[in-house]
Specification:
heterodimer; A: 416 residues; mainly beta; Porin; 14-stranded antiparallel β-barrel; 3 helices; 59% strand; B: 392 residues; 2 domains; 4 helices
Chain lengths: 416, 392
Amino acid sequence: MIMKFKYIIFFITLFSAFVFSQSSSTYTRYGIGDMNYTYSARSLSLGKTGVGMLNSNFVESLNPASWADIKLTRFEFSLVLNGVRLSDKSDSRFYTDAEFKGFTFAFPISEKYGIGFAAGLIPYSRISYEIKETGTSVLADSGEYSLNYKGSGGLSKLFMGASYRTPFDWIIGASAEYYFGRRKYISTINFSNTTYNSGEYELDYRSTGFGTTVGIISQNFSDLLNSETISNLRLGVSINIISNLSTDSSLTINPTTSADTVVNGNSDMKIPYRLITGVTLQLSNKFTINLDYIFQPWSNYSFNGIKSANLGDVSRIGLGFEYFPKTEISSSKWEQIIWRAGLSYETTQYVINGEDIKQYSVFGGFSIPLGASNTFDVGLQYSLRGTTDSNLVKENFYKINVGLSFGELWFLRNQY
Amino acid sequence: MKFLFKLTIILACLSLIIISCSDDPSSIGVDLIGSEYLVLNNFNTQDDSTTQTSYYYKNAGSLGLSSRIFIGKRGDLEASTLMRFDFIINDSLQDNFLDDSIKVNYAKIRLLPNYTYNDAAQSMDFTVHKISNYWTSSSYTIDSLSTLMYDNSDVISNRNFSDSLYTFNIDNNIVLSWIKSSIDTNLEKNYGVYFKPTAGSGKIVGFPAYTLYDTTYAQLTVVVEKPGFYIDTLSGFLVSDVSVISGNFPVLPDGEIAVQGGLAIESKLFFNIKNIPQNVIINNAQLILKQDTTNSVLSQSGAGSIRIFSVVDSTTDSVNTSNSILMTKQDDIFTGNITSLVNDWVNNKNNQGMILTTGTQTDNLEMIAIKGSNFADLKERPQIKVVYTSKK
């Protein structure tokens, strides 16, 4: 296990060095940015679905009830390489960056009662954009100037929770969550004429607060279908509720001669609840199919009591497939690779110039077994968001999520 | 585990390659920036019906910090100077001075002119008088002159004045009394001499004042003799000097203001710039003043300069002396970069106006007439041009 920890530290240290560049999606300017529904490579490659799945070898963050089948103590973490091609009517650019997606830890407490414990630190949202514009002022003799707009940060979630299997095989789970994060928006102007003062506005928000996610996974309904093919059919529901986040805000104006924080304040930020429902079924003990629906009414988002005209309700439907070819120990490593794919369609929370921004995605991925209960996971995503009409931006996303899932047998009870 | 490390290294290399493909930031998406969008604005007091006020007045400040002393007359302007020399006498000679066995053969003062106000062709002469009461340059003001006590008799002779050198002899007995005073402080005090211009003077001449870093200030050379033994030369060293400029408050045509060195004539100027919103970035602000060349009186070599100070307390018109702005001049237009002042006025709501003085107020006498806030021609009035950045 010590070797695994060393490896985890090595992995994180190596890839953290890449988290320096800034990808660019101006849509993240609104609200709290892009949502992270899942963090792991496995969930990504399943189209970010699986609210009804019970997982023995993975820690899923969509539904706390899914931790009931955890058999071993597990560590998981993942990183994402983001690429996005931005296009408007006259230009097209490609941007990349890397992002640490968090880690989770889980262990079983009672197999009989389906009590599993999980904790972790994962991102909830992300803001990342940088725009540069140059111009020549007709005013006086200021000459050429450049404008730079940069947004960064987001919200993160620290959570811990547990699951419990009720007598009728209905599983419930809940997690307590602490939300925190910083969002920074910097607008800078620079002049080529040195007699003109450059300057910047720095708008900084620091939010903290608590929340919870409560989930339920139904009993196996496959018997009702009298089908030999369908071996596991479950429904899942989870709801995530966040208290109003206390947000310290400051506006700092930085002329070249001095810096001055001109506005300080504390406001409440209201994050709307998130409801996820879904169904999962297994076919021939080799195929798993998920169908999830996510709803989050971002039209109810408010900051300091003011709603945003650029935010609407999220409505997302996702479909995921998982193929588990061979589970026998005698199978080769390559025969044990788990293959995944997914699709999704989403009306995002962004409403710009009166137009709902829609996103279409396809997913893929696989898990390579590394020993009996460890896997190296890869998830791939390609998405299309937005349009070049109405002065909007079309975004072609590429994501490569790589993660590791380690399982160990811990907490053995001494028999003697 | 080896497989994992290999995989990690491969992924790391792949990541670096992908990340290095990133383009530089572009303008794509700038229309979505919303309230973060920056707008460049222009504000001109002549276009924005800004109210402004200005007036000029006389400020009685301390005169001792000047790097120049003045002597002479020009019109109703009169410059006089106080000086005090001291000596360090070798112990072996002190008794000889006290028992008068050493006498002063002659004592000569040398002054090197470096400023003329304002007609060099005019003559300038002065008398020098022994001062009989205490004074100090550090706190000397224009009002101190009325309390000065001095002998009426002129104590100098052998005047030799030219454009580049002023020399004259000073009474031997006075110099001897200064030497004795430096040896025995119980003897008659040395209060120095008072340089008073004669009525016929038509110009004011400036000379370097005492500084630690220069030797061009007034020099006193004394030739002493112990009869039958030796003749020697001593140097008196200048320990204090100050000039006092007196004159009438300048009268200007309606709508004009002025600044003048020496007399400490200053102007106060205030613009109401409420039309510039708060929380903006002041990129550039220029104050533009138009000179009335007809009513200005400049020095022989000077083009005239104006300095701007921000008023920090309008009830006393006290200014921030550590942050002054020297205006540049082209033709008859003075321009000064007052970006830092306007930033303070707008973003800190601390607009209490500004004070205008000559560039070096105690080192020159020039009088600059400026078209003020009530000048008949609106376009000739003081003007501020501001370029600022605001959020959309």
